């Protein structure tokens, strides 16, 4: 079972990670929680998993490979839109998801030992129709509004294997992307 405090903690940490990975420093960002997925219409998604012994969470970044979306990720990666072919676009959006989940993974590591993260997978959006089969203890949908970009949607699904309870205060939440750790 996932407590309400833990659900709020997962949501808060993901929203912080989204702000630090999907938005350039000169853009404003507004993230809101959606009651369900009926407003999510993008055609594809990038899926990443963060897991521990106590839970598995999946973060799904929905996107449509249109000109406005490609322009946003070109701007985010400081390249000209004309220099970004289809593979470079998919790599850019997958890396953005990877950065976001890396931040989330690091922040969750303060509460849970032994956390690992998957590599990004780009799949069809229709796969999200089967989320209920995962019996998740927490599912939350987000809408992200960014200046000069289309609205993006993200879904968080947390499957629990034990009781999960933690709380995050805004004061202790990290706001930077951190530095590379070498082992």
Plain-language structure description:
- It is a single chain.
- With 183 residues, this protein is an alpha+beta fold.
- It has a single domain (4-160), classed as 3-Layer(aba) Sandwich (Chemotaxis protein chec).
- Helix content is 28%, strand content 26%.
- It has three helices and seven strands; from the N terminus they run αβββααββββ.
- The protein has helices at residues 4-21, 67-76, 86-108, and strands at residues 29-34, 44-51, 55-63, 116-117, 121-124, 138-146, 152-160.
- Strands 1, 2, 3, 4, 5, 6 and 7 form a seven-stranded antiparallel β-sheet that branches.
- Strand 6 (138-146) and strand 7 (152-160) form a beta hairpin.
- Helix 1 (4-21) packs across helix 3.
- The chain is globular.
- The protein starts with a helix and ends in a 23-residue tail after the last strand.
- The model is unreliable at 175-180 (pLDDT under 50).
Which key terms come to mind for this protein?
183 residues; alpha+beta; Chemotaxis protein chec; seven-stranded antiparallel beta sheet; 3 helices; 28% helix
What value does the Rg take, in angstroms?
16 Å
Count of individual helical segments: 3
Order of helices and strands, N to C? HEEEHHEEEE
Proportion of residues in β-strands: 25-35%
Mean residue pLDDT: 88
Here the CATH topology equals Chemotaxis protein chec
The dominant shape is globular
Question: Alpha-carbon distance between the termini?
Answer: 34 Å
Largest sheet: 7 strands, antiparallel
Instruction: Briefly note the structural class of the backbone.
Output: alpha+beta
Q: Give the low-confidence spans.
A: 175-180
- DSSP helix fraction: 25-40%
Tally the structural domains: 1
CATH architecture: 3-Layer(aba) Sandwich
